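Bug #77: duplicate submission created two jobs. Keeping one. Sequence:
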Amino acid sequence: MPEIVVAAPKLKPKPKRTAPRRATPAAPANVASTGPAPAAATGTGTSGTQTGLQQVPGLAKTGTPLGDLPQSVVVVPRSQIVEQGGTSLNDAVKDVSGINIGGSSSYGFFDRYTIRGMDARIYSDGIPDGDQFNGFPHSLNGVQSLEVLKGPGSSLFGSTTPGGSINVVHYLPSPIPGYGISEQLGSFGATTTSLYATGPGTLPGWAYRIDGLVQHADGFRDLKSADYEIRPVLSWNHDNHVTTFALDLRHIERTPDSYGILYFNGRSNAGIPLAVPDTAKYSTPFDEGNQNFARATATDSWWVADYLTVNNRLSLTHRDVDILRNSGGGTITLVGGLFEEGSAGCPSPTASGCRQLREQTDHDNDFIYQFEPVWKFHTGPVGHTLLTGAQVEWESIDDNRATANLPNITNIYAPVVPETSTAGLDFMRTAALPGMIDDLSALYLSTYATDQIDVTDQWKVRLGIRREHWYEQLTPLAYVAQSATNPAPGRFEQNGTPLEPGVVDTETDTPTSWSVGTLYKIFPGVAPFAGISKSYLTNFNSETTQNGVFAPESGLEYEAGIKFSTPDGRLVFTPAVFAIYRTNVFTENTTTDTISFNAQNSRGIDADLQFAITPQWKLLANAIAQNAVLTAVPGTPSQVGNWPVGVPRYIFNLWTSYDFAINGVHGFRVGGGLSYNSLTYANSGNTSWVPPSTVMDAMFGYYQPRWDAQIGIKNIGNVTYYTFAESAGGFVGDPRTYYVKAAWHY
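Kept job's structure:
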C-alpha cells in the first residue's frame, strides 16, 4: 500500500509577553485603588474584592489567605473605621479583640497599645514605626486598612513585642483616574479635611497617588492637637517589575496630659470621694509633644518566574521630637478631711517628691533595607511558599533632656496650676531631676525564612525562623551628678557602673526567634489551628537611653483556636485561647518612680465576629477575657502577683448597622455600638486604678456612588471614662460629642 503522510499544522510562536505574568502573588502589598469608597459595615481589606477569610494580609508576606493562616490575624477596612466616625488609629483599634489603648509610659502624645495584655508594635506597610516609647500618633491619611497579627511576630519582623503587630496599610496608585475630598466637623473645634487624587502618569506604566490631611482640634480639657500631612506616591509597572516610590511628610502637634484627673486609691479614701469635675487640670498648661516626620520608601516586586518573586524594600526615616511634659507625681495627703497635693510645698529647686516638668528633644534616624525572595515549589504532592529574607536596619537617637521642679498644687479639689511659662524654672540633669545628653545607635542584621506548607487542601503548616545580630552603642555626652551640691555620679548602667561622658557602652545580642503553627479544615468553614511562637524585643528607646544597651526582652506564646466561616463569607467567627510568657520587660515602676526589668504572663480567650445577618443588617463584635500578672519584680518583690499597668480583665466591643430606603429612595444607613472596659490599674503596686466604663455611639448616613454624608454622636450617655490609666491619674475620654461628615469622590 502506498505510504500515507499527514502534515501536522505548524505551531504559531507564542506572543511575546509585554507585562508581568503572575501566579498567585507571593507577597502582595496593598492593592491599588481609586480611593475611599462609601462607608460599609464590611470592606475589602487588603485583598481587593475578597472578604472574610479569603482576604490576603500583606503582613503574612507569603500571599496566604486568612483562612489558611494558623494564627490570629484580623483585617479592618477603612470603610469600617469611617462608618464609626473614626479619624485616627485610636478610633480603629477597638474593632479588634484584645487591643487596649495605653500601657506603661503613656503620656497622651503618641500611640501606645496592648494586645492580649502585652505591648504591641506599629508598622506602616511592613516598616516599623520605631519603638513603642515616645512614638507618634497615627492618622488615617491615605490608609486603606489595618492588619493586626496577635502574638509574637519576630520570625517575620525581627525585634517586636509579644502582644502583637499592627500594620497600617496605605493605598497605592491606580491607572484609573480618581479624586475626592471629605470634611468632618465635630465638637470642641474638631476638623478633619482629607483629599486624594490618583491616575495614570504621562509615561507608559506610570501611575500616581497623593493623599493630604489637615486636622485640628481645640480638645476637651483644652488639649489642642493638629496634623498636617501629605503623602505622594509613584508606581512604575515595567519589565516584570512593579516599583513604588513614596514620601510621607507630617507635622504633628499634641498636648500631653500626664496627670489626667487625679485620684487616690481609685475612687475614695476613708469614705471621702475625690469628686472633681472632669475639666479639672493638673498638668502644665503649656505642655507640648510636637514632631516633624519624614519617611521616604522605595519598593520593588520583581516577578522572575512562576516559582520566584523577589521583593526589595528600602526606607529612610527622620523624626524630630520636641517634648515639654510633666513627670513626677508629687505627694497626695489627707489634711483636715481634705486631700491636698504637696501640702508641705516644694522646699527647693533640687528637692525630690515635687511636681516636675521635663524638657526633651530627640532626633531619630532610621534606615531599613529588606531583601525577600519568595519561592513557590512542590516536594512531591506537598506545596510550599517559602519566604526567605535578609534585613539591615540602622537606627540612631540623639537625646537631650533636662528636668525642673514645679511648685505643688495646694488643693486638688480646686486645682490652680501655678506655672504659666518656663521663665524662672531651673532645668537640670541630676539623679533627682532626670536628664541626659546621649547618642544612642544600633545596627540590626537579620536572616530569616518562613514556609507556608500546603500538605493537602485541608492541612496547612507554617514554619518560621529568624536569626538576629544586634549591635547597640551608647555614648553619653554630659555628666549627671547626684545633685547640684553632690558631684558624685548620679546615673548608672544596669550593672551599677557610672555613665561617664565619652565612655562608650555597647551591647551585642544574637537571639533566634521562631514560630510553628498548623491548621486543619475538618469541615468546609471549620478549621481548628494551633501554634507556638518565640519573640525578642530590643530595649533600645529614648525614654531611658541607658537601657538601649541591655539584654533584650523575650516572649513566648501558645495559641489555639478555630476559624468558622460560611461559604458565602456572611459569617466569620474566630475564637482563640492563648498563654503568653514575657521576661526582661522594661517597666517604669510608677509606685517608686524607678526603672526595672520584670516578668509577666497573660492567659485568656478572645474572639472576633463578623456577621451579615441579612444583606442590609451587619454585625461586628469582639471580646477578650484575660488574666495578666507580674511574675517577677526585682525592685519591688511584694508586687509579684499584681496586674500590669493598663491591662483590663475584660474588653467588649459591638457595632451594628442597617441599610434601608425611605419612600423608595435607597442609600440610608443607621448604626450604633458600645465599648466596655473593666477596671484598669494605673501602677504596678495596684494602689490606683480607673473604674470600668461603657461608652455608646450612634450614626446616621446617606450614601450615593459619588458622594455621602453622615452625622453621629459619640458617648451618648455622657459618661465620665478614662482612655488609659496613669500613675497619678487617668487620661479622660471625651464627653458626649457630635460630628457631621460629607465626602465627594469620583
